[in-house]
Write a structure and sequence with these properties.
Layout: E1 2-8, E2 11-20, H1 22-33, E3 43-54, H2 58-70, E4 79-83, H3 87-99, E5 106-110, H4 113-121
Parallel strand pairs: 2-3, 3-4, 4-5
Antiparallel strand pairs: 1-2
Helix pairs in contact: 1-2
């Protein structure tokens, strides 16, 4: 599994590819929360479209939910765009979004990269 994190102004693009394991989904949290730019992030674009398989347990998604929800203490203005194009990525996105439905983070799922980028660029965020 590969995880790539790129900053662009007040946005972050996180791209996952290959097999997704628990260490991979927690790594971006460690990187983002420890970065002083975190407080100014406006949109996190998560690209799951290249994920081919996963061995994540339901508990892994619950821990991720807890980490992401608690991060709103430092930044309550985050929007999240998830790119999901295949069965595996759609299943992951739907499960995560279901758990995060009462979160302060506004989350949307997209099947097209351009739509996700447009969502992040609304109100000149990008």
């Amino acid at each position: 599994m590969a995880v790539d994190i790129k900053w662009h102004k007040k946005n972050v693009l996180i791209t996952f590819s290959g097999q997704l394991i628990s260490d991979d989904i927690f790594y971006p949290n460690k990187v983002l929360i420890s970065d002083p730019r975190f407080a100014n992030i406006r949109c996190i674009l998560i690209d799951l479209s290249q994920v081919t398989t996963t061995n994540l347990a339901d508990d892994d998604i619950l821990v991720l939910k807890a980490l992401d929800s608690s991060a709103t203490v430092w930044n309550s203005n985050i929007r999240m765009a998830i790119i999901a194009k295949n069965e595996v990525s759609n299943m992951l996105a739907d499960k995560y979004m279901s758990l995060m439905k009462n979160s302060k983070i506004e989350i949307r799922k997209f099947s097209k990269d351009v739509d996700a980028k447009n969502y992040c660029s609304e109100n000149h965020i990008l």
